[in-house]
Please model this.
Amino acid sequence: MSDDSKDVLSTAAPMQRRSVLKGTAGILAAGMFPAVHSQEKIVLRYLGTAVNQDKAIGDKFKADTGIEIQYVAVTTDDVTKRAVTAPNSFDLIDTEYFSLKKIVPTGNLKGIDVKRIKNADKITSLFTTGMVAGKAVGDQGTAPKKVIYLEGEKSKVFAKSPTQFMSLIPTVYNADTLGIRPDLIKRPINSWAELLNPEFKGKAAILNIPSIGIMDAAMVVEAMGIYKYPDKGNMTKKEIDLTIKTLIDSKKAGQFRSLWKDFNESVNLMASGEVVIQSMWSPAVTAVRTKGIACTFQPLKEGYRAWAAGFGLPATLSGRKLDGAYEFINWFLDGWAGAYLNRQGYYSAVLDTAKSKMEAYEWAYWMEGKAATQDIKSPNGDLLAKAGSVRDGGSYEARMGGIACWNAVMDENNYMVQKWNEFVAA
Amino acid sequence: MAAWWQALPLTAVFVLFFIVPLALILMVSFWDFNEYELLPDFTAKHYLAVFEGCFNTDAMCVTFKTYLSTIKFSVLVWLITLIVGFTVSYFVAFHVRSPGIQTVLFVLCTIPFWTSNVIRMISWVPLLGRNGLANQTLVGAGLVDAPVEWLLFSDFSVVLAFVHLYTMFMIVPIFNSMMRIDRSLIEAASDSGASAWQTLWNVIVPLSRTGIIIGSIFVITIVMGDFVTIGVMGGQQIASIGKVIQVQTSYLQFPLAAANAVILLGIVLMIIWALTRLVDIRKEL
Model:
């Protein structure tokens, strides 16, 4: 039915366009077919970071539904900035859960009606209850379960218990740890403390996004046994001072080769051998490996720093664009995109649907932590792992169950940013 | 009256796109803010925050350190681009006779601008890095035992990138001034028995002064406000005022960023004012 309507539109001569539209409107009014496929094509402006904006995903969605996705790629911080300052400059936002503390109070996001999301009840329990395989994981910082529900569609506050409205529908998430060059380090690494180990003087790097970098630093401070935070994700001024002081002392001793802010920078630093140990993102490790360079996303005994991103809808979105956005979210959770992301080393929100779109050997390697029975390839066809190898960090349960804290926005955020600038200037 | 009307379009553009935004920045620098919105107010606390701890004697505060480092780069880059720019201009203006070849050489000077800023800077890594060409050559020739680390992500690499980028801004105005020097003056100097150096110092340099000052204004203002080059070439470990402002805006701390911007603007204006004391640009043009 929907295909028919498209044909009518494309074959109609310009002269007849008006009458065709009228006719379409009549059919629409009669509720005979979904609004999404009628009239002119929908283009959704998708605001997010470049990491999640894969051309293949947009192309596949367009082929499946006829709706075009227009990527607007900016940095993590700028996604938040635009959501707060220019909420009409996008139709769909892909942002991290920790940003919600800044965005939701502005009222610029609309609660997403879970009744319109087909797979809403299949979203992994990590988001809804903070559990993995029945066990609670670390919830220091802005854990998604704290901010995923809103009190209503037009709410500016988070709900304490599950409601019909979600702030963000999860897209991808992962647990970050240190990336290392095993060929240059030549010994096992098992603790966050190694990041500031003088052995790697001039060969270490840390993330220069304050709200994420400070969490990595806190993991290091705890691992070094300097201090144990009651909540790493919400430090007091004193705790911030201590954390930054540790970083500054290391920096002055020449520990860091560089700081990085951009995905490609981290890949570059690692691949060129300028840095042998640094905080890193999983797809960046994958990117280094596809260049044929050994790089490990090293599981550490203190656990992981987790992050999660999701789709949100701007409050002003309405009509066909809103329907299109819902259709995209539903499509995204339907498996193809999930499988695509899982093959990049991320995790998808609805595991069952993604599993159905992956080969059994792929699922066993990526999700169950089993040795690969065949060569593992990236979605682009590059070789990622030879048959017989095992994924860093093991199975989904082992990795996500090892979460120690989440990326966060602290109450003392302004002070933290000021101190971070001090670290950069030191 | 007609003259006023003729000036109106440009004035309107200036007011709309320059004066109004600047006034807004000034206004916002006195506002308050929270995590997600600006609160109209009149408070000097952001200015105080910028200089917090600056008047304790024991250690230099972040703001002073940052300005010091930014000014250090400005002076270094200014000196080097001035010497390189003057030399190149001198060569093209006085030693190259054919206008055709002068044009070709000029186009050659613009090559650094053909690629994007970021690509250009990233391409320094394989050249200067630990395993880069420069180090391979040095180690291979037996000049050093271990790779030299300060070639990249250091003050050296920042200055190098700036010079590579901005010498052009020195060359153009200086060349322009030199081309307007009456050649008979040089002949007169030589007839009066001046040596080549004396001619250079007593005739050419004073007559190129306008170009030198204009080029200096370009280079100094660009370097004072830069954060991309210092960020990428300094391994993001070297502070600059531009970087501080950028971090603050990305964390929605607009009033703080505005206060910093106003202070930076004030300092740069003072530098330009001092430079224009040296030459009356309006008269010379």
Q: What stands out?
A: The two ends of chain A are 65 Å apart (CA to CA). Chain A touches chain B through 37 residues (CB under 8 Å).
